[in-house]
Amino acid sequence: MKTNKNEQDFVLRYFQSGKLNTMAALRKVKDRVKEGSCGKSQDATSALELISISQANRTRRLRWIAVAASLLVLLTVGAYTLLMPRTIVLKSEGQVVAYNLPDGTHVTLSPYSSLSYSEDDCRKVEMKGCVYYQVKHDEQHPFDVTGERGHVWVLGTQFMVDERTDAPEVMVTSGMVMFAARDAASGVFLTKGKRARLSQGADKPQLLADYDVNDVAWATHLLHFVNAPLQDVLDELTKLSGKQYVASDYSKRLTGDFNTDSLPQVLSVIEETLGISIHQN
What we know:
By secondary structure, this protein is α+β, with helices and mostly antiparallel strands. The chain has helices at 5-14, 22-83, 217-220, 230-241, 263-274; strands at residues 87-91, 97-100, 106-109, 114-118, 121-128, 130-134, 143-146, 150-154, 158-162, 169-174, 176-181, 188-191, 195-197, 206-207, 222-229, 245-247, 253-259, 278-280.
Protein backbone atom coordinates (compact mmCIF):
# COMPACT_ATOMS: atom_id res chain seq x y z
CA MET A 1 0.00 0.00 0.00
CA LYS A 2 1.41 3.35 -1.03
CA THR A 3 1.18 6.49 1.09
CA ASN A 4 2.06 10.00 0.23
CA LYS A 5 4.07 12.45 2.31
CA ASN A 6 1.00 14.12 3.85
CA GLU A 7 -0.24 10.81 5.12
CA GLN A 8 3.16 10.02 6.62
CA ASP A 9 3.37 13.40 8.36
CA PHE A 10 -0.07 12.90 9.86
CA VAL A 11 0.84 9.48 11.21
CA LEU A 12 4.17 10.64 12.67
CA ARG A 13 2.55 13.62 14.35
CA TYR A 14 -0.25 11.80 16.07
CA PHE A 15 1.31 8.37 16.55
CA GLN A 16 1.09 6.96 20.09
CA SER A 17 2.25 3.44 20.68
CA GLY A 18 -0.52 1.07 21.55
CA LYS A 19 -3.22 3.62 20.89
CA LEU A 20 -3.21 4.41 17.21
CA ASN A 21 -4.07 1.94 14.54
CA THR A 22 -1.99 3.32 11.72
CA MET A 23 -3.84 1.50 8.99
CA ALA A 24 -7.20 2.69 10.29
CA ALA A 25 -5.84 6.23 10.56
CA LEU A 26 -4.66 6.16 6.99
CA ARG A 27 -8.02 4.88 5.84
CA LYS A 28 -9.75 7.77 7.59
CA VAL A 29 -7.39 10.21 5.95
CA LYS A 30 -8.10 8.72 2.54
CA ASP A 31 -11.85 8.81 3.21
CA ARG A 32 -11.64 12.50 4.14
CA VAL A 33 -9.64 13.24 1.01
CA LYS A 34 -12.23 11.38 -1.09
CA GLU A 35 -15.09 13.23 0.60
CA GLY A 36 -13.39 16.55 -0.22
CA SER A 37 -12.82 15.58 -3.82
CA CYS A 38 -16.37 14.33 -4.18
CA GLY A 39 -17.79 17.54 -2.77
CA LYS A 40 -15.74 19.62 -5.15
CA SER A 41 -16.84 17.40 -8.05
CA GLN A 42 -20.49 17.78 -7.07
CA ASP A 43 -20.07 21.57 -6.82
CA ALA A 44 -18.50 21.68 -10.27
CA THR A 45 -21.28 19.51 -11.68
CA SER A 46 -23.92 21.77 -10.16
CA ALA A 47 -22.20 24.83 -11.59
CA LEU A 48 -22.08 23.28 -15.05
CA GLU A 49 -25.75 22.39 -14.80
CA LEU A 50 -26.59 25.99 -13.87
CA ILE A 51 -24.54 27.31 -16.78
CA SER A 52 -26.28 24.89 -19.16
CA ILE A 53 -29.73 25.95 -17.90
CA SER A 54 -28.79 29.62 -18.24
CA GLN A 55 -27.60 29.10 -21.82
CA ALA A 56 -30.80 27.21 -22.71
CA ASN A 57 -32.94 29.99 -21.23
CA ARG A 58 -30.92 32.60 -23.16
CA THR A 59 -31.37 30.62 -26.40
CA ARG A 60 -35.12 30.40 -25.83
CA ARG A 61 -35.30 34.15 -25.16
CA LEU A 62 -33.36 34.89 -28.34
CA ARG A 63 -35.71 32.65 -30.33
CA TRP A 64 -38.76 34.42 -28.93
CA ILE A 65 -37.20 37.83 -29.69
CA ALA A 66 -36.54 36.72 -33.29
CA VAL A 67 -40.14 35.47 -33.66
CA ALA A 68 -41.51 38.70 -32.19
CA ALA A 69 -39.33 40.79 -34.52
CA SER A 70 -40.53 38.80 -37.54
CA LEU A 71 -44.17 39.24 -36.52
CA LEU A 72 -43.60 42.97 -36.04
CA VAL A 73 -42.15 43.26 -39.57
CA LEU A 74 -45.08 41.32 -41.04
CA LEU A 75 -47.61 43.44 -39.17
CA THR A 76 -45.91 46.66 -40.30
CA VAL A 77 -45.82 45.58 -43.95
CA GLY A 78 -49.41 44.37 -43.77
CA ALA A 79 -50.63 47.61 -42.19
CA TYR A 80 -48.80 49.68 -44.79
CA THR A 81 -50.30 47.61 -47.60
CA LEU A 82 -53.80 47.92 -46.17
CA LEU A 83 -53.52 51.66 -45.52
CA MET A 84 -51.84 52.56 -48.82
CA PRO A 85 -54.38 54.00 -51.31
CA ARG A 86 -55.30 51.67 -54.15
CA THR A 87 -54.83 52.59 -57.79
CA ILE A 88 -58.11 52.60 -59.70
CA VAL A 89 -57.81 51.59 -63.36
CA LEU A 90 -60.55 52.22 -65.93
CA LYS A 91 -60.33 50.52 -69.32
CA SER A 92 -62.15 50.14 -72.61
CA GLU A 93 -61.67 47.22 -74.93
CA GLY A 94 -63.20 47.20 -78.41
CA GLN A 95 -65.84 49.85 -77.78
CA VAL A 96 -66.41 53.32 -76.32
CA VAL A 97 -66.93 53.23 -72.53
CA ALA A 98 -67.98 56.10 -70.22
CA TYR A 99 -67.26 56.45 -66.49
CA ASN A 100 -68.12 58.89 -63.70
CA LEU A 101 -65.26 59.76 -61.33
CA PRO A 102 -65.88 60.30 -57.59
CA ASP A 103 -65.62 64.11 -57.96
CA GLY A 104 -68.39 64.24 -60.57
CA THR A 105 -66.09 64.37 -63.61
CA HIS A 106 -67.32 62.37 -66.61
CA VAL A 107 -64.77 60.59 -68.81
CA THR A 108 -65.34 58.75 -72.08
CA LEU A 109 -62.70 56.30 -73.26
CA SER A 110 -62.30 55.46 -76.92
CA PRO A 111 -61.62 51.80 -77.78
CA TYR A 112 -58.44 50.32 -76.25
CA SER A 113 -57.79 53.27 -73.94
CA SER A 114 -57.20 53.42 -70.18
CA LEU A 115 -57.24 55.88 -67.29
CA SER A 116 -55.91 55.41 -63.75
CA TYR A 117 -55.85 57.38 -60.48
CA SER A 118 -55.23 56.95 -56.77
CA GLU A 119 -58.42 56.20 -54.86
CA ASP A 120 -57.78 59.20 -52.60
CA ASP A 121 -57.29 61.71 -55.48
CA CYS A 122 -59.28 61.32 -58.68
CA ARG A 123 -58.27 64.86 -59.78
CA LYS A 124 -54.85 63.55 -60.80
CA VAL A 125 -55.05 60.93 -63.54
CA GLU A 126 -52.80 59.10 -65.97
CA MET A 127 -54.05 57.93 -69.36
CA LYS A 128 -53.29 56.00 -72.52
CA GLY A 129 -55.13 56.16 -75.83
CA CYS A 130 -57.87 58.73 -76.39
CA VAL A 131 -60.10 60.15 -73.65
CA TYR A 132 -62.75 62.87 -73.65
CA TYR A 133 -63.09 64.75 -70.34
CA GLN A 134 -66.03 66.66 -68.90
CA VAL A 135 -64.34 67.98 -65.77
CA LYS A 136 -66.29 69.05 -62.68
CA HIS A 137 -65.24 72.63 -61.85
CA ASP A 138 -63.21 72.98 -58.62
CA GLU A 139 -61.02 76.07 -58.18
CA GLN A 140 -59.30 74.56 -55.13
CA HIS A 141 -58.34 71.35 -56.89
CA PRO A 142 -57.12 71.60 -60.51
CA PHE A 143 -57.64 68.55 -62.69
CA ASP A 144 -54.32 67.08 -63.83
CA VAL A 145 -53.97 64.71 -66.81
CA THR A 146 -50.66 62.99 -67.54
CA GLY A 147 -50.27 61.01 -70.74
CA GLU A 148 -47.34 59.06 -72.12
CA ARG A 149 -46.04 62.24 -73.80
CA GLY A 150 -48.32 65.14 -72.90
CA HIS A 151 -49.56 66.91 -69.77
CA VAL A 152 -52.78 68.93 -69.31
CA TRP A 153 -53.98 71.11 -66.39
CA VAL A 154 -57.53 72.42 -66.02
CA LEU A 155 -59.97 73.73 -63.41
CA GLY A 156 -63.22 72.72 -65.04
CA THR A 157 -63.81 72.28 -68.75
CA GLN A 158 -64.47 69.84 -71.58
CA PHE A 159 -61.67 68.60 -73.81
CA MET A 160 -60.20 65.58 -75.56
CA VAL A 161 -56.67 64.21 -75.21
CA ASP A 162 -55.62 61.93 -78.05
CA GLU A 163 -52.35 60.03 -77.47
CA ARG A 164 -52.86 57.26 -79.99
CA THR A 165 -49.90 58.51 -82.05
CA ASP A 166 -46.40 59.85 -81.35
CA ALA A 167 -47.82 63.38 -81.73
CA PRO A 168 -50.57 63.77 -79.09
CA GLU A 169 -53.33 66.32 -79.65
CA VAL A 170 -55.65 68.25 -77.34
CA MET A 171 -58.98 69.73 -78.45
CA VAL A 172 -61.05 72.00 -76.20
CA THR A 173 -64.83 72.11 -76.50
CA SER A 174 -65.45 74.30 -73.44
CA GLY A 175 -63.39 76.40 -71.02
CA MET A 176 -59.59 76.60 -71.09
CA VAL A 177 -56.68 74.19 -70.56
CA MET A 178 -52.90 74.30 -70.35
CA PHE A 179 -51.22 71.78 -72.68
CA ALA A 180 -47.50 70.95 -72.32
CA ALA A 181 -44.97 68.20 -72.84
CA ARG A 182 -44.99 65.60 -70.08
CA ASP A 183 -41.96 66.91 -68.17
CA ALA A 184 -42.24 70.58 -69.15
CA ALA A 185 -43.17 73.37 -66.73
CA SER A 186 -44.93 75.52 -69.35
CA GLY A 187 -46.97 75.02 -72.49
CA VAL A 188 -49.79 76.66 -74.43
CA PHE A 189 -53.26 77.77 -73.34
CA LEU A 190 -56.17 76.43 -75.36
CA THR A 191 -59.71 77.81 -75.25
CA LYS A 192 -63.00 76.61 -76.72
CA GLY A 193 -62.65 75.56 -80.33
CA LYS A 194 -58.84 75.43 -80.24
CA ARG A 195 -56.55 72.50 -80.92
CA ALA A 196 -52.82 71.85 -80.54
CA ARG A 197 -50.38 69.06 -81.35
CA LEU A 198 -47.15 68.08 -79.59
CA SER A 199 -44.83 66.86 -82.34
CA GLN A 200 -42.29 64.19 -81.48
CA GLY A 201 -39.20 65.79 -79.91
CA ALA A 202 -40.81 69.26 -79.62
CA ASP A 203 -40.49 71.29 -76.42
CA LYS A 204 -43.93 72.86 -76.71
CA PRO A 205 -47.21 72.05 -78.51
CA GLN A 206 -48.12 74.02 -81.63
CA LEU A 207 -51.54 75.46 -82.38
CA LEU A 208 -53.47 73.94 -85.27
CA ALA A 209 -56.50 75.04 -87.22
CA ASP A 210 -59.68 75.09 -85.19
CA TYR A 211 -61.04 71.62 -84.78
CA ASP A 212 -64.32 70.27 -86.12
CA VAL A 213 -66.83 69.65 -83.34
CA ASN A 214 -67.62 66.32 -84.97
CA ASP A 215 -64.11 65.11 -84.06
CA VAL A 216 -65.44 64.39 -80.56
CA ALA A 217 -68.82 63.02 -81.68
CA TRP A 218 -67.68 59.52 -80.62
CA ALA A 219 -67.75 60.81 -77.03
CA THR A 220 -70.48 63.46 -77.08
CA HIS A 221 -72.83 61.50 -79.35
CA LEU A 222 -73.61 64.74 -81.19
CA LEU A 223 -73.07 65.56 -84.86
CA HIS A 224 -73.28 69.12 -86.13
CA PHE A 225 -73.48 70.02 -89.85
CA VAL A 226 -73.73 73.42 -91.54
CA ASN A 227 -74.34 73.16 -95.27
CA ALA A 228 -72.08 70.09 -95.32
CA PRO A 229 -71.63 68.05 -98.52
CA LEU A 230 -73.38 64.68 -98.24
CA GLN A 231 -70.07 62.85 -98.71
CA ASP A 232 -68.69 64.59 -95.58
CA VAL A 233 -71.78 63.57 -93.66
CA LEU A 234 -71.42 59.94 -94.68
CA ASP A 235 -67.71 60.01 -93.79
CA GLU A 236 -68.57 61.11 -90.23
CA LEU A 237 -71.12 58.32 -89.92
CA THR A 238 -68.49 55.84 -91.11
CA LYS A 239 -66.06 57.04 -88.39
CA LEU A 240 -68.67 56.38 -85.73
CA SER A 241 -69.97 53.04 -86.99
CA GLY A 242 -67.01 51.56 -88.84
CA LYS A 243 -69.33 50.88 -91.77
CA GLN A 244 -69.24 52.27 -95.31
CA TYR A 245 -72.32 54.04 -96.68
CA VAL A 246 -73.32 54.99 -100.22
CA ALA A 247 -76.08 57.40 -101.35
CA SER A 248 -78.24 57.68 -104.43
CA ASP A 249 -77.39 61.38 -104.91
CA TYR A 250 -74.20 63.08 -103.67
CA SER A 251 -75.15 66.57 -104.83
CA LYS A 252 -77.15 67.22 -101.66
CA ARG A 253 -75.92 69.24 -98.70
CA LEU A 254 -77.05 68.98 -95.09
CA THR A 255 -77.55 71.34 -92.14
CA GLY A 256 -78.62 70.04 -88.75
CA ASP A 257 -77.74 68.53 -85.36
CA PHE A 258 -78.08 64.81 -84.74
CA ASN A 259 -77.88 62.56 -81.70
CA THR A 260 -75.88 59.49 -82.67
CA ASP A 261 -77.23 57.13 -80.01
CA SER A 262 -79.22 55.51 -82.85
CA LEU A 263 -77.42 55.68 -86.19
CA PRO A 264 -80.21 53.88 -88.11
CA GLN A 265 -82.56 56.64 -86.99
CA VAL A 266 -80.05 59.32 -88.10
CA LEU A 267 -79.79 57.72 -91.55
CA SER A 268 -83.57 57.56 -91.82
CA VAL A 269 -83.90 61.28 -90.98
CA ILE A 270 -81.23 62.23 -93.54
CA GLU A 271 -82.92 60.15 -96.25
CA GLU A 272 -86.30 61.76 -95.57
CA THR A 273 -84.87 65.29 -95.29
CA LEU A 274 -82.83 65.15 -98.51
CA GLY A 275 -85.13 62.86 -100.47
CA ILE A 276 -82.44 60.27 -101.14
CA SER A 277 -81.70 56.65 -100.29
CA ILE A 278 -78.66 55.52 -98.26
CA HIS A 279 -77.53 51.96 -97.81
CA GLN A 280 -74.54 50.15 -96.36
CA ASN A 281 -71.84 49.22 -98.86
